Amino acid sequence: MLQHAIGYVDEGEFYGAKALLNVWKPTVIGNDFSLSQIWVLSNIQGRLANSIEAGWHVNPSENSDSLPRLFTFWTPNGYRSGCYNMLCPGFVQTSRTISLGAAIGPISTYNGEQYDVAFMIWKDPKSENWWLKVGNEVIGYWPSSLFTDLRNHATLIEYGGEVYSGSLGKHTSTQMGSGHFPDEGLGKAAYARNLEVIDSANNLNAPSNLQLYTDKPNCYGVTKGYGGVWHNYIYFGGPGYNSKCL
User: Fold this and answer.
1) What is the per-residue pLDDT across 23-65, written as a single tens digit (0 to 9) for each?
2) For a tag site, which of 20, 78, 221, 235 has the least CB within 10 Å?
């Protein structure tokens, strides 16, 4: 079971996306995972989705710990296959400073200091490869030859959170983001801020008509806003299992 709480834009041709995600350490149960990321997708009706994803996740079964760690994922065929980080051929790392899978810190605290990291995925017009930048460091690229529709451009950009759980019966208690609902706001809920999309000339632009989606709003929620130095932003997340999320 995958559950999402995201903001998305799906009107236009996109050549990348950027957002600042604040870093948390959500409680993750068993073999579940919880993540905060950006998605760059080609999602054309009747065709298998291509997706490039980057952010941080807490994935104990993958990493043998509960720390938030830098990760990437890509799929050329609607998640029938694909790869985390560099577990199979695909992503080409160029940075000698930061590696995929590295622990990300410092971690935001509830009602305390907030720490965020900028993630940007963009398509280089010359090589046509898709590049990843985290903070001020260019990490590497996905060759365009990995994909079908993403050899051209993306049709859908998403920002926000995802929880996976294999548990049956009652809803998982795995948290998304801070483990608190978005209406608690700054210092308490997870956010993605300064949401931007990239056009064919490699310009960063504000997303037009940002929309929201959540599978189960009583488990994990999402809200949006605009203002100040954050421009477009969302708050998202939640505790999972509670009296309204069974």
Assistant:
1) 999 999 999 999 999 999 999 999 999 999 999 999 999 999 9
2) 78
